[in-house]
Amino acid sequence: MDQKSRRKQLVAEYKQTRPEAGVYRIVNSQNGKMLLASSPNLPSVHSKMEFARSTNGATIFGYKMAPDVRQFGIEAFSLEILEVLETRPEMTQTEILADLATLEGLWREKLDPSLLY
């Protein structure tokens, strides 16, 4: 297999591989409040959290959390993956986002709304 064919094969495999999608929460260990959200790309959420830790970023996950991040520090927050969505190769991005919205809604029903950012 020549280099050009190998490259095409790798690109095709990459396009078929989807990142893990799911529902997550970021929990403030100091007051119990949490940000509940979903993402079609959970590894990117993990990367955002690591970036926030490295820069002490207060607004990386939105302005609702920023005052608590400034008060308690980014180290008071932890990322928890609540549920991973099983995706199939034939699913469209729209279908994945719709399924994520449904899963997130189910998790919202389980959690105390007074603790959500």
Structure class: alpha+beta
Percent of sequence in beta strands: 15-25%
Helical residue percent band: 40-55%
Largest sheet descriptor: 3 strands, antiparallel
For this structure, what is the CATH class? Alpha Beta
The H-and-E topology, N to C, reads as HEEHHEH
The CATH topology label is: GIY-YIG endonuclease
Rg measurement, Å: 18 Å
Based on Cα principal axes, name the global outline: flat
Which stretches are low in confidence, meaning pLDDT under 50 for 5 or more residues running?
none
- Number of structurally distinct domains: 1
Mean pLDDT: 91
Q: Report the total helices.
A: 4
Terminal-residue CA separation: 53 Å
CATH architecture: 3-Layer(aba) Sandwich
Q: Report strand order across the widest sheet.
A: 2-1-3
Would you report the number of β strands? 3
Short description:
The protein has 117 residues and is an alpha+beta fold. It has helices spanning 3-16, 42-55, 66-72, 93-110, and strands at 21-28, 34-39, 77-85. A hairpin with a 5-residue loop joins strand 1 and strand 2 (34-39).
